[in-house]
Amino acid sequence: MEGAQEIIVPRNEAEIADAVASAMENGTAFEIVSRGGKRNYGKPVAAGTILDAGALSGILKYEPEELVVSLRAATPLAELEAALSERRQMLGFAPADWSALFGGHPGGATLAGTVATNACGARRVKAGAVRDHIIGCRFVNGSGEAIKAGGNVIKNVTGFDVPKLMCGAFGTLGVLTELTFRVVPKPARSATLALRNCAAESGLRALRQAAGLPIEPTGLSYLPAQALAASPAARAAQLGTDIGIALIRVEGGTEALNEKLVILRRTFAAFDAVTVEDDGALFREIDEGGNFVDSSVDVWRLCVASSDAYAAVEGSQAQFWYADWAGGLIWLGLPADEETARRLRGVTAQFGGHATLMRASAEARARLAVFEPEASARATLTAAVKAAFDPQRLFNPGRMVEEL
To answer: Rounded distance, CA 296 to CA 64, Å?
Structure first.
């Protein structure tokens, strides 16, 4: 139980290394947290000690002209975004703060948690994921060694790309202490063309069509009527319909943005379309699972090829869902039970991709495979990587794979 766990709060990287060295001698294991906002994402960790790295916070070096920022790993995402915003810059992958989704307060995400869970938002359709923007890190491995990987320049091609390996590893390979990202300029303007009163199949098809236009969309999402009804941002933008809505976001300078909107209106002239000057609230809500925040329903995420999105939704039998990444990511409100798991894994067996149980009780997450089961060859590779970085399995044991 959490109350029985010892808590270690190191103040710097050296104290983390000392804690790991002691754990090696004693054969103990750690549950690694920074602010703990994502502790309930993944399988429950089989460890008696919490290693709280939250003290490792603060921006170390920001070079706006070089589009590079380095910071301690537990720096709050909100702190970094505020500093970047002052120079009209941002993290290009639209980091997603899932704090409220897991019952915490909005704004609780850290950069370490963002990297560990590969938490990126709608902008991925243009900018890629977290791993496409991280260029360096420092971490303590399972042998108590402080390791530097990558660097503070964008063109770094030496050695194995360890920073990317840390993205989505859920803290199972090492304790992150420092991170370096490339940043991008903020767009001058942002606007969303909303295609109203369109059914799921036609709405998802429209998003795929928009993805192929010369407009560089930075958001391609579909909200069915149920998701719209649960969306404060959609209500504020007066986007309610009885069927569903497809959202196509474009960005750029005024002239370029207007040209993109002309292309969109011409392409989708048959739809009931309205243009919304986008302040970010609508897509931020989509990124953060905001439609599920005030609901007690269990949450799954299904990743498939966008061309298979409609068939995947039909196969899931979900009544409450919405789609992002032109249908490549589908958020589903479905029970965390064996029947649902079999159904969703049947969908991924048919179409490829993966199904992840994102939010559920500890009991359900302990009982079910939270992440898509790996094929034999990949499972062997995963075990080999874990053994190389954390030979005694000290870090977040069992969080992703029960045996690791």
So the answer is: 42
